[in-house]
Amino acid sequence: MSLRNIAIIAHVDHGKTTLVDQLLAQSGVFRANEATVERAMDSNDQERERGITILAKCTSVLWHGKAGETRINIIDTPGHADFGGEVERILGMVDGCVLLVDAEEGVMPQTKFVLGKALKMGLRPILCLNKVDRPHADPDRVHNDAFDLFAAMGASDEQLDFPHIYASGKAGWATLDLAQPNDNLAPLFDLIVDHVPPPKAEQRKDEPFQILSVLIENDPFLGRLLTGRIESGKAVPGMAIKALSRDGKEIERGRITKVLAFRGLKRQPIDDAEAGDIVAIAGLSKATVADTLCAMEVSEALPAQPIDPPTISMTVSVNDSPLAGREGDKVQSRVIAARLLKEAEANVAIRVTETSEKDAFEVAGRGELQLGVLIESMRREGFEVSISRPRVVYQEGENGERMEPVEDVMIDVDEEFTGIVIEKLSARKAELKDMGPSGAGKTRISLMSPSRSLIGYQGEFLTDTRGSGVLNRVFSHYEPYKGPIDAGRKGVLVSNSDGETAAYALWNLEERGVMFVGAGEKTYQGMIIGENSRSDDLDVNPMKAKQLTNVRASGKDEAVRLTPPRRPTLEQAIAYIEEDELVEVTPKSIRLRKKVLNPSFRKKRVRED
Predict the structure, then answer these.
(1) In what order do the strands lie in the sheet with 68-76?
(2) 59, 122, 288, 573: which one has the fewest Cβ atoms less than 10 Å from its Cβ?
(3) End-to-end CA distance of the chain, in Å?
(4) What CA–CA distances, in Å, run from 325 to 322, 328, 331, 525, 554?
């Protein structure tokens, strides 16, 4: 039986996971009477809620095609650039990739990001034009754009000679020619078998065992599981192995307790696995991502792919507000530190360091979404933490000048909103590269923008475009520091005492701005309860009750009707706060507060980066 290892790479929401559903279904993975779920590979709760892939996952299918029986190992990768660390690691396990592009939206920033990594590693891609059955699809234009992108990214002649196929992942069909309709994905399976080469490692079956760990997870019964592609030799349960770090130092010795292969959506124990196959190995307790697991006679580690450095960081500290410890059970600094270090071990795109502040840790990652997903996971596990405003990670240039990360931004908006979007981003030091129609009355705007300009801009963007705009961004490179940026956020309403909010007080405060809290909620001195309509901060009393009198005049006791509060989500809260503010995150609540809870006076807001 021959073997193929492929990754499916695409921009977020272009249909990767839906296509994998159909590949699994049509290859006979599910029984006829078995209940199947939509987006089967998105097994994480947050993945299902957000509708995006966060973690790279493996599956495999058996295909009985023209070339006989072939096992195809498929890796579903995240489409969002914030989780690019997952993509960078797993591309070393595969010999080819399917680049999925929406036939209406076309090539997007994250498409460039993952494609650049794949081309650099010498993978030969297959272009799959998905969603060709959409009303505004233009597969010929998108095909030409994709070819231009390949050429612009320095693809070799062999890579430029890529095959393409038209598909509808949701409907479950693919065809090499739109004039010849089809009702299944057989042409895609056959194209993968014909175009993707078998693993080169298959030729090293007789050499000593070696595998590079690229994914790590913990199983409650088997302990630490390390996933990778066997580069040489054979893995057999009970075999003595050792783990080597990147520089060849021995980390630990042990025995393989289980060899697990991916069979459909399940991992099954197998008696042996040969070079070229993607497996998970149990038995070691210290080895981690980028370590080499090998036979005892091996002395050199396998080369690991370099990972792009983090661009955004924030401070995670112990929750020290007056309401601390009431909703979560994991509040100590040592427990928070252990959880963050565990995340950094499994996710190589996250870096955790101690700070000079007491009980505080700096967490650096690829973007606000990645850091938000981490904090949301901790929140669901029962942690209570305080989060600072995200800030960019600067680097030092050759001449000692400060360099800041710059992002490639692509925006699709209705034509009527192009003016305000360009005006707002130009004020934030973004540079317009290109603008033109993208079909269906939309305009596509391409810009280069400093990363710090985009912190907190997403909410403002959705307001400006009335929720119809789509903003995509991906890290591009570092440029010299562009100077201070005035984002122009309004001031906030700050509670001046402890207690429970009163409806009467909030009703009177509504003319001052927008409320973040409702009536009957606990608050404390220094907690942010709303946004001021002006640019400075304002101390207010949200507990002020109505003074009762003995007068019974008409209209004296009208009912208090409050406008529903604008409760920020975790990502919105992290992006909203300023340098002198924190987000208090607990399993049940998200509160905004001042770093200093009871200062003698409030300064007029001055924003500098």
Answers:
(1) 57-65, 68-76, 2-10, 96-102, 124-130, 164-168, 173-175
(2) 122
(3) 59
(4) 9, 6, 7, 17, 47
Q: DSSP assignment of 445-509, as one string?
A: EEEEEEHHHHTTHHHHHHHHTTT--EEEEEEEEEEE-----------EEEE-S-EE--HHHHHHH
**Beta strands at 292-295 and 360-365: parallel, antiparallel or unpaired:** unpaired
Q: What is the pLDDT of residue 335?
A: 92
Nearest to 327 by CA among 592, 593, 521, 586: 586
Q: How far apart are CA 567 and CA 530, in angstroms?
A: 10
Strand 124-130 relative to strand 96-102: parallel, antiparallel, unpaired? parallel
Alpha carbon distance 353, 496 (integer Å): 34
**pLDDT at residue 608, as a whole number:** 40
How many Å is the maximal CA-CA distance in the chain? 98
Alpha helices in 27-102 (DSSP H): 45-50, 84-90
CB neighbours of residue 293 within 10 Å: 26
pTM: predicted TM-score of the whole model, two decimal places: 0.79
- Under DSSP, is residue 158 helix (H, G, I), strand (E, B) or coil? helix
Vertex 18: Cα angle to 17 and 22 (nearest 5): 115
Which residue in the block uniquely carries the two structure tokens 């050429």? 151
Cβ pair 318, 333 in contact under 8 A: yes
What one-character DSSP code corresponds to residue 415?
G
How many angstroms from the chain centroid is the CA of residue 247? 29
Q: What is the pLDDT of residues 181-237, one digit of tens each?
A: 888 888 888 899 899 888 887 778 888 999 988 888 888 888 888 888 898 989 999
Task: Please tell me what DSSP assigns to residue 525.
Answer: T
CB 24 within 8 A of CB 265: yes
CA distances from 346 to 217, 224, 226, 361 (A): 7, 11, 10, 18
The amino acid at residue 520 is G
Are the CB atoms for 259 and 279 separated by under 8 Å? yes
β-bridge mates for residue 314, sequence order? 363
Flag residues of the chain having pLDDT under 50.
32-36, 554, 556-557, 600-609
Domains belonging to the chain, first-starting first, are 2-198 (3.40.50.300), 202-295 (2.40.30.10), 395-480 (3.30.70.240), 492-577 (2.40.50.250)
Per-residue model confidence (pLDDT) at position 592? 92
